[in-house]
């Protein structure tokens, strides 16, 4: 019985310390945010503002970089990977925005190959590559691009994934 | 007599330079304690006699090495006292007795000298230092193949890279170094550039054998170690022709 009481008491203590800690942290945060203006103590705020880029998953809006007619698509399924698609993977997407007269219309469900991703992709020699935006090239079910031109840089990784046609259409290989 | 005595001198004198003088005296007194005309420290050319074999023959005389050491120390003290007496009586008789004794003290001396040689040995490599040592070795090996220039944040560099997928030509990457992470052999630099309207950042391990050349073109004055603010700024600042 004494042991039980002691455990309950320790639990209570733990909750109390959690609450106290959170309020302390809240106070600290307030101080830091006020200090930001004075350009001091960048260390802690820097880690808060550094974005951790992640996978391309459901509801991710991507830019279309070929001349198939679509402008923006929303990912509805990443075909490979439990957490989401990465650079070089194929996705199923729905066209959200399109040019008035193009090969694809708004609302169409299409396949796409991710050619630029904000999440870094490691290469076999230890280097990593990351782009500033998420971009996709629309393809058909066989993997052949629908459009005839690709804008912007594309990475080497497409060669391994057998998207050679996109590589040949690309203007610049990163 | 000289031919038998001097081989012992041959063994002893090369080791003697870093011997403490007391031991030397102890030995010489030990030898000269016996009536003989042996003068240590007179190395002349002598026919090489395998004196180690002589020493080995005496192994049964000494039961255990520590005992031998103690034997030596015990020997040297009374012998130091007997020095004054011993020097006085220098005769040329009892050669075989003196030879046996010289041999046993040679054996003893050898033991003492091997013990004396132990203290100046290499310092132990601690467990925590191993990674550092391995890293410096790997960096040195890489530097020998291709020297890496001094790279700092804010340098505008051009990197020539050999890509296994693009075997035909070397890929060229140009851009500004926005950060440098030091991690021994995996020291990396992050290069940023605007390519065809899109910002690209690539992390290169500078000691990688795939990198064929790193050339510093220019330097931009920056007041930071990591230039992540360039991501939010105008693309013009990250463009390099």
List the helices and strands and how they pair.
The complex is a heterodimer of chains A (174) and B (241).
Chain A: H1 2-36, H2 42-49, E1 61-64, E2 70-78, E3 90-98, E4 109-116, E5 121-122, E6 128-131, E7 135-139, E8 153-154, H3 157-160, H4 164-169, E9 172-173
Parallel strand pairs in A: 1-7, 8-9
Antiparallel strand pairs in A: 1-2, 2-3, 3-4, 4-7, 5-6
Chain B: H1 2-15, H2 21-33, H3 51-57, H4 65-81, H5 83-88, H6 95-117, H7 130-145, E1 155-161, E2 171-181, E3 188-195, E4 198-205, E5 211-219
Helix pairs in contact in B: 1-6, 2-4, 3-6, 4-6
Strand order of the largest sheet of chain A: 1-2-3-4-7
- Tell me the major beta sheet of chain B: 5 strands, antiparallel
**Relative strand content of chain B:** 15-25%
Poorly predicted runs of 5 or more residues of chain B:
9-66, 68-74, 78-84, 86-90
Oligomer: heterodimer
Order of helices and strands of chain A: HHEEEEEEEEHHE
Number of strands of chain A: 9
Major interchain interface with per-chain residue totals: A-B, 24 and 22 residues
The ordered string of helix (H) and strand (E) elements of chain B is HHHHHHHEEEEE
Number of strands of chain B: 5
Strand content of chain A: 25-35%
Using the CA coordinates, give the radius of gyration of chain B. 36 Å
Structural class of chain A: alpha+beta
- What shape does the CA trace of chain A take? globular
First-to-last CA distance of chain B: 90 Å
Helix content of chain B: 25-40%
- Give the overall average pLDDT of chain A: 80
């Amino acid at each position: 019985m004494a042991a039980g009481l002691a455990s309950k008491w320790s639990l209570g203590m733990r909750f109390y310390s959690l609450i106290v800690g959170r309020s302390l942290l809240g106070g600290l945060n307030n101080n830091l945010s006020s200090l930001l203006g004075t350009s001091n103590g960048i260390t802690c705020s820097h880690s808060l503002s550094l974005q951790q880029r992640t996978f391309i998953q459901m509801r991710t809006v991507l830019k279309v970089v070929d001349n198939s007619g679509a402008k923006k698509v929303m990912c509805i399924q990443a075909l490979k990977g439990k957490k989401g698609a990465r650079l070089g993977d194929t996705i199923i997407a729905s066209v959200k925005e399109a040019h008035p007269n193009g090969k694809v219309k708004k609302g169409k469900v299409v396949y796409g190959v991710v050619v630029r991703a904000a999440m870094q992709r490691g290469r076999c020699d230890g280097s990593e590559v990351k782009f500033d935006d998420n971009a996709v090239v629309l393809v058909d079910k066989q993997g052949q691009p629908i459009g005839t031109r690709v804008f912007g840089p594309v990475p080497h990784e497409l060669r391994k994934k057998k998207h050679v046609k996109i590589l040949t259409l690309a203007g610049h290989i990163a | 007599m000289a031919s038998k005595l001097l081989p012992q001198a041959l063994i002893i004198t090369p080791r003697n330079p870093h011997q403490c003088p007391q031991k030397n005296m102890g030995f010489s007194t030990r030898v000269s304690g016996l009536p003989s005309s042996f003068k240590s420290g007179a190395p002349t050319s002598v026919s090489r006699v395998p004196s180690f074999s002589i020493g080995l023959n005496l192994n049964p005389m000494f039961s255990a090495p520590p005992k031998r050491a103690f034997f030596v120390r015990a020997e040297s003290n009374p012998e130091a006292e007997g020095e004054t007496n011993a020097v006085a009586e220098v005769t040329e008789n009892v050669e075989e007795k003196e030879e046996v004794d010289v041999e046993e003290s040679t054996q003893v001396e050898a033991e003492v000298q091997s013990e004396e040689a132990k203290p100046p040995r290499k310092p132990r490599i601690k467990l925590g230092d191993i990674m550092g040592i391995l890293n410096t070795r790997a960096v040195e090996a890489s530097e020998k193949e291709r020297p890496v220039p001094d790279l700092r944040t804010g340098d505008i560099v051009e990197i020539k890279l050999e890509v296994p997928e693009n075997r035909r030509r070397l890929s060229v990457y140009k851009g500004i170094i926005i950060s440098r992470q030091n991690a021994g052999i995996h020291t990396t630099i992050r290069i940023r550039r605007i390519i065809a309207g899109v910002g690209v950042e690539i992390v290169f391990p500078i000691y990688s054998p795939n990198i064929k050349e790193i050339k510093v073109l220019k330097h931009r004055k920056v007041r930071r170690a990591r230039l992540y603010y360039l991501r939010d700024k105008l693309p013009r600042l990250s463009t390099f022709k």
